[in-house]
Amino acid sequence: MASIRDVAKKANVAACTVSRVMNGTANVAPETRQKIEDAMKELNYIPNELARGMFRQKSGTVAMLIPSIRHPYFSNLAHCIESKLYEKGYKLMLCSTDGQIEREREYINILKTNIVDGVIMGVSDLEDNEYQQFDKPMIMLDYDAGKKLPIVVSDHEKGGRLAAEKFMESQCRYVIHIGDRELSKVESYKCHTALAHALNAAGIENRFIEIKWNEFDFSGYLEIAKTILEKYPQVDGVMAADIQAAAFLKAALKLGKKIPDDFALVSYDGTYVADVNLVNVTSIIQSADKIGDKTVEILLKLMAGQKLTKRKYLIDVVRKDGETTK
Amino acid sequence: MASIRDVAKKANVAACTVSRVMNGTANVAPETRQKIEDAMKELNYIPNELARGMFRQKSGTVAMLIPSIRHPYFSNLAHCIESKLYEKGYKLMLCSTDGQIEREREYINILKTNIVDGVIMGVSDLEDNEYQQFDKPMIMLDYDAGKKLPIVVSDHEKGGRLAAEKFMESQCRYVIHIGDRELSKVESYKCHTALAHALNAAGIENRFIEIKWNEFDFSGYLEIAKTILEKYPQVDGVMAADIQAAAFLKAALKLGKKIPDDFALVSYDGTYVADVNLVNVTSIIQSADKIGDKTVEILLKLMAGQKLTKRKYLIDVVRKDGETTK
């Protein structure tokens, strides 16, 4: 296979001139460019992405940090981002921090070397300034790390409002929302704030209960769900992430509650986990596809040194009504 | 924070001597070692993993290639491997090929550079010699790529036999096994061979039907399941991967079949997807934990230049009996 040196020799120019033409990094006289392009055609030269990357000081690789690879929402989002990046000629390297701040910090340190051209941050355990100090193109996914960094995120407030509507239509009197830590800095927490706001305005009692999100032990979730429903027998509505929602559904049925007459359930995220159940679960769906497309679009702009017109990109969420609400 | 140079200055030795002590790469006189260790203590020197890696020509990073990050089995396995690697001081970079041979090849090319110290191959689209030509420590997960490369894999034959037992106990007369392409080179295909063998021996009719494994469109799977069950109304048993199994369960109930009297179902993999359902699904469980532990153990040996005592490591599978079989 012809190398960049063969092309340079054929065109009677220096190899670095060939690479300049390949990468469009500097002005090259039109006739020189023509000579090089002719030589490439004649030699059937296929630019090797990796070689091209080395010339450009680019790796052609983007990293994405996520809190858990096991979480169906993140694994689906990673898939969408990877597909989109691939379309644009980039590879994705995925780093999962297991929700641990030390791991997040260590990955960021590794990524400061020349392995990647840009970073997508689906994590949020560091302080704003730690993200801001990272000197490569970076985009945030669920955490607003201040004015230097763009963020692409679901419209979680709308998500909370859409869920509230369903609890009202189901005539609920006491709704529990299950989530991770009460973290106002994490954007997804806004679905709880919006839900509480709407339910309070309608005079519906409600309460936020924290459950660890990254255990992935379904029988454990089932136990917790049962305990909560026994402790609060008056509860007639629950909003929870897909897997925990499935646990509440199972627990409520075991306790003899009728769905949706005695008990309404809204699942958050709307991954395939909400679909596999025998009962069609009412879900708020985050569009991983749209988040992925927008994230890659913005990151490519940053990597090309372009200015962004705005900093925060809100992606619409929708509700799919199922059999678990009226 | 103290640097390696500060330590060298304090101990009155060259920086490379300090790094030799840190990495144990060469003999250093005991008194010199003591001086260096004292200086480290005094300066409260914390060796930076990355710096240490650069001295050792190691990155402290392992890559894992998988066919899909969305697949609950692979995402769970990646999680287990990552946790184990982290325990041992390594980071994991995950690359998902989307089942495409071109992507697999491109990732392998990237990984030939100095980004990673070793590679875990959870993919299987290339030819044996392409894997064998890779010149870093490599371990295979579900594909036996020939005598040069070690493989850690579930005992899929046992998985097939355990499933067959349940179909027999459920008095099935016609069992369908759903899978991806008929690929004898992929180890997981052995569960189908073993299932067919056992069912044939018992005079139970059976048939393998191919369904794309990486669509993740549950309503699509549901349609396919319905079509298959309508085309083969005599079918009274199905073995399929977790998500597809959920689709068959839903389709069978919609067609008015009684579970497990008219229809028995066995789910393969046994991820949390099999657990979230309202009905407890009988599952063959691949132990991602044990596969992860063994894989990391073997890879670390390879990276340390140790010889392996054997090449193939078979990990036990178990069956969890649920409500979908007799």
UniProtKB/TrEMBL annotation, chains A, B:
GO molecular function terms attached to this record: DNA binding
Pfam families: LacI, Peripla_BP_3
Domain of life, per lineage: Bacteria
Keyword Transcription regulation: yes
Alphabetized InterPro entries for the sequence: HTH_LacI, LacI/GalR-like_sensor, Lambda_DNA-bd_dom_sf, Peripla_BP_I
Record keywords: DNA-binding, Repressor, Transcription, Transcription regulation
Keyword Repressor included in the entry's annotation: yes
Domain HTH lacI-type: from-to ranges: 2-56
Cited PANTHER family: LACI-RELATED TRANSCRIPTIONAL REPRESSOR (PTHR30146), RIBOSE OPERON REPRESSOR (PTHR30146:SF95)
Record-given protein name: LacI family DNA-binding transcriptional regulator
